[in-house]
Amino acid sequence: MELVGHLINGEIRTDASRTQDVFNPSTGEVSRQVAIAPANTVEAAITAAAKAYPAWRNTPALKRARVMFRFKELLEKNSDKICRMIGEEHGKISHDAMGELQRGIENVEYACSAPELLKGEHSRNVGPDIDSWSEFQPLGVVAGITPFNFPAMVPLWMYPMAIVCGNCFVLKPSERDPSSTLFIAQLLEEAGLPKGVMNVVQGDKEAVDTLLKHDDVKAVSFVGSTPIAEYIYATANANGKRCQALGGAKNHAIVMPDADMDNAVNQLLGAAFGSSGERCMALSVAVAVGDEAANRLIESLKQAMQPLKVGAFDNSSNDFGPVITREHQNKVNGFIDSAEAQGAEVVVDGRNPSIENHENGFFVGATLIDHVTSEMDSYKAEIFGPVLQVVRVNSMQEAMNLINDHEYGNGTCIFTRDGEAARYFSDHIEVGMVGINVPLPVPVAYHSFGGWKRSLFGDLHAYGPDAVRFYTKRKTITQRWPSAGVREGAQFAFPS
């Protein structure tokens, strides 16, 4: 059986203290195994990155950017192969995988502008014959720890910008779907990246802790669940590292009485059920203002959900695929059970769908639950599955209070025709990414991605302009060349 290994100093290695099965979620079968790196393998990757750093740091930004241009071309050339790898291990339908990859490529395109982004600032004659300027210098060896739900896109949020800024990188991807991530890293070396600048180690908590505690790792980026994000952030900070840790979400959509209901329903379908709801930006709660709007919404959703198809990744006529593991399938079904037991109404039931020729796959069908309240377990938790819950409220302010009171603040949106309501909503909602009639307000590559509250630990968001700030440190130089023959005496007052 194929064993997925590590990329260290330009070589594939299969060092493993243990191995772990990698499943095809559409069939429920083991497709390959992944090597779980012991601490010394992770340390070897860090050492390779540290050795490569001096030369890469001094490589002109334009030459670093040229590697990214070639990398972009290779990603596009190999897109079908990458998307198939994603489908085989994540279960994502081919069109969804292609959308994920395209979003990742857009971050590579942004990284290509490094010569402009790293120019710094300059001021002449800040004092007599004194000039001052700032530079953005790389940190050294930096690390990324990424989740299963976007094995291509989320790593591409991190290392293209980190590398083009002059750092060397060690990536610890999810061990559940490692193949596409490793293949993409190999394409980066094919694009001309020197050996050791980019390294990939497969692993679990032992690998993570090694990255968090090693003295040569200067910064850590993470995307995953909130409990793990808290641990990553606290441990990285305790070891003197810069850290951004993106955590969980519970994203609400307010549906106002004046909303274009047909548009709202269509947008909610994709935002709630796309990628089987395994998105940190998935819209999992619709907050309907008034019973009339709620009844219209439920009836329209119920009808629109009937033709939705869940199935295997390689059938492009399917709308979404399985969830990642059998354990996660049981967890999602358990939240549906608990909502029903606590008084909610399961309007469309996606538990235990029958998928011909894929009876052992990890499937959950599209599920709609009405009359959910904020006290229910299914409301409080991030289900991370194809489940849309409807909460009924009497006013827009009540809906906003519901959102602002939740521990997460990742993404939200409002469906309305009222510009005043939309403006008030965007001004006063305590969430990091806001959509107005846009259900997945994921910022484009030249903005930055990040939530508020317990959805983000750290001061800087992911990718975009914040990535330059995160992966560099500012140095300010003040310089004076006195005129020949002019010498000043000692000055003891603070200069001004």
List the helices and strands and how they pair.
Elements: E1 3-4, E2 6-8, E3 11-13, E4 18-24, E5 29-36, H1 39-57, H2 61-77, H3 79-90, H4 94-111, H5 114-117, E6 121-127, E7 130-138, E8 141-145, H6 153-164, E9 168-172, H7 179-190, E10 198-200, H8 205-213, E11 217-223, H9 226-238, E12 242-246, E13 251-255, H10 261-273, E14 283-289, H11 291-305, H12 326-341, E15 345-348, E16 367-370, H13 377-380, E17 387-393, H14 396-405, E18 408-409, E19 411-415, H15 419-428, E20 433-436, E21 452-453, E22 456-457, H16 464-470, E23 472-480
Parallel strand pairs: 1-5, 8-9, 8-11, 9-10, 11-12, 13-14, 13-19, 14-17, 16-17, 19-20
Antiparallel strand pairs: 2-3, 4-5, 6-7, 7-23, 12-22, 15-16, 18-21
General description of the model:
The chain has 496 residues and is α/β, with parallel strands linked by helices. It is 39% helix and 23% strand. The chain has 2 domains: 3-247 and 455-477, Aldehyde Dehydrogenase, Chain A, domain 1; 251-436, 3-Layer(aba) Sandwich (Aldehyde Dehydrogenase, Chain A, domain 2), CATH 3.40.309.10. The chain is built from 16 helices and 23 strands. It has a 7-stranded mixed sheet, sandwiched between helices. Strands 10-9-8-11-12-22 form a 6-stranded mixed sheet, with helices on both faces. The chain is globular, with a radius of gyration of 25 Å. The protein starts with a strand and ends in a 16-residue tail after the last strand. The model has no long low-confidence stretch (mean pLDDT 96).
